[in-house]
């Protein structure tokens, strides 16, 4: 058994996954087992990936071909179930690890046995793997990474809620801690990264934050966040709201939770306006101001919707992604 398990889920992106896989194989720390899980790629693209893995001739690498498209959630569940190693990592197929990522992460986790995960900052790259220095600076600033100190962070719940600081492609987890905390509240949760880190954070787990950029995050047109407006994607925002609804914290974390849940309810209200379900839309708006009564922006949105509901659909229809009618549930049902 190896020390580290790295799972790489992929679908129809052999040009990217080759780089991701090579970056793991070429780590300075060698005691690693790698499973590439192909999620029903097109035959020609799968053949290309098969040939590449075969040419590597690396006994540490296994290619698994999923019989059905199980989605990102199914890939996470499958890969985590395959992990019997002490440490677990999920590397997205379009991202890349720097040469010393695993060695650095293992050094820090070995020195701090009570720390659950190692996370680090990232460089942004484009489709051709060219570094994007200006985008990297703004991205780190947007997530608050540029203000985080190197070392152990206790009480990471506000970090996880407010900023989404951590990224799967830049995190090494202790497997035992993930098993203890669980990964997903519900198999249909869309925003699985947030759910995994939230479950760890609310249980008081510690994290090591590394200010070195030991991972490369690819910024490209095929990303889900660029193809779909996530905050107006009903499946995504409903499960996000569901994750926040079922929780209650204290202090700063609770303030952030209520603010974010109010944001999610505003988005769900607009989605319901687009659908034509005005009663449901107004219900979400009422919940919005109940959660965040001193937020003037929230009140302005509510007043606009109350006065000009007929304008919302024309303004927002092009952004909204509705779930099929048969699968629509209230936010409070999604994450139970």
Describe this structure in words.
By secondary structure, the protein is of the alpha/beta class. Helices cover 48% and strands 17% of the residues. Helix 2 links the parallel strand 2 (32-38) and strand 3 (61-65). The chain is globular and about 65 Å long. The chain starts with a strand and ends with a helix.
In short:
The chain is of the alpha/beta class and 336 residues long. 48% of the residues lie in helices and 17% in strands. The two termini are 36 Å apart.
Q: How would the blueprint of this fold be written?
A:
Blueprint: E1 4-10, H1 14-25, E2 32-38, H2 43-56, E3 61-65, H3 71-82, E4 87-90, E5 96-97, H4 101-111, E6 115-125, H5 133-142, E7 151-153, H6 157-162, E8 171-174, H7 175-181, H8 192-202, E9 206-218, H9 224-227, H10 234-245, H11 251-275, H12 278-291, H13 296-307, H14 309-316, H15 331-334
Parallel strand pairs: 1-2, 1-4, 2-3, 6-9
Antiparallel strand pairs: 4-8, 5-9, 6-8, 7-9
Helix pairs in contact: 10-11, 11-12, 11-13, 11-14, 12-13, 13-14
Tally of alpha and pi helices: 15
Structural class: alpha/beta
Order of helices and strands: EHEHEHEEHEHEHEHHEHHHHHHH
Head-to-tail CA distance between termini: 36 Å
User: What's the alpha carbon Rg, rounded to whole Å?
Assistant: 21 Å
Helix content: 40-55%
Q: Extract low-pLDDT stretches.
A: 325-336
Specify the biggest β-sheet: 9 strands, mixed
